[in-house]
Amino acid sequence: MIKFLKKDNKRSVRIFVVLSLFAFFLLFFLLIILSLQFFQPQVDILNSKFSDDNKVEDKFIDKSKDPFIVYPILESELNKSKQPEVSDNNPIYGNSQAELNIVYYSDYDCKYCLQQVETLKAVVDKYDNQINLVWKDYPELDYESLSFKAAVAGRCASLQGQFWPFQKQFHKQFSIFKTEDGSSSQAFDDFVLGIAKSLDLKERDFKSCFSNLETKTLILEDVAEAQKLEIVGVPFTFIGDREILGEYNREDIEFLIKNKLE
To answer: Where are the alpha helices (DSSP H) in the chain?
Structure first.
């Protein structure tokens, strides 16, 4: 075909040019027709969805200035930021009906997380019923890692109403365990079971929960949410819609909380 295009036959060249132009314009009009048929149903669906009958009060706006956007955009959707969800599965420190949630993503195998959670708990105690602390697990994605197994153990303690005492005892003893017993999986299982016994948890229920796949699923739900929110490390804290990566001191945290409560 390349050789054909390079031939010196003027008539053939003219015919080829004419046919090429005709094919180009034909393809152009076909694309227009197809695009109209493709976008029109979406417009109709959106118009019906956001009709007066549905009583949607948000104002349709388009802040993108993109000429190719042909559907209405809700202002509430544009202003909506990524936020974690709080469910009954998440341990909560303080008043569950508080005005302001502090959502905290943590890993048991993280010394900075230990320091940060104690700071947050102290602030919640100070503000009494106005704020609470919501725990989210973000461990290593390895079922056999101490990080993941500790998260599971914490949720098992939570099912018996002892999450926060377990969390406190775990962080108090974990560094000693790592120094003395290293990272032995069986030794770690005995370690968390020992904490459970010290808190008078029902041993059989705790063991059953600790090996239950449903408990692991609770952890994976938190991990999936953290990844969706593009959280890159722990500790990670949401104070309302304010995001904090890393450890913050108490004064800075209280400053942010006061701004949110005003």
So the answer is: 2-5, 10-49, 75-79, 111-126, 146-159, 163-181, 185-198, 203-210, 213-228, 250-261
Q: Give residue-wise pLDDT tens across range 88-127.
A: 999 999 999 999 999 999 999 999 999 999 999 999 999 9
Please say whether the beta carbons of 186 and 176 come within 8 A: no
User: What are the sequence ranges of the domains in the chain?
Assistant: 2-79, 92-261
Q: State the DSSP code for 172.
A: H
8 Å CB contact between 256 and 102? no
Q: Find tokens 């153990």 and name the residue.
A: 153
- The verdict on domain 92-261 having CATH code 3.40.50.1440 is no
Phi-psi region of 195 (alpha: psi -120 to 50; beta: other; left: phi over 0): alpha
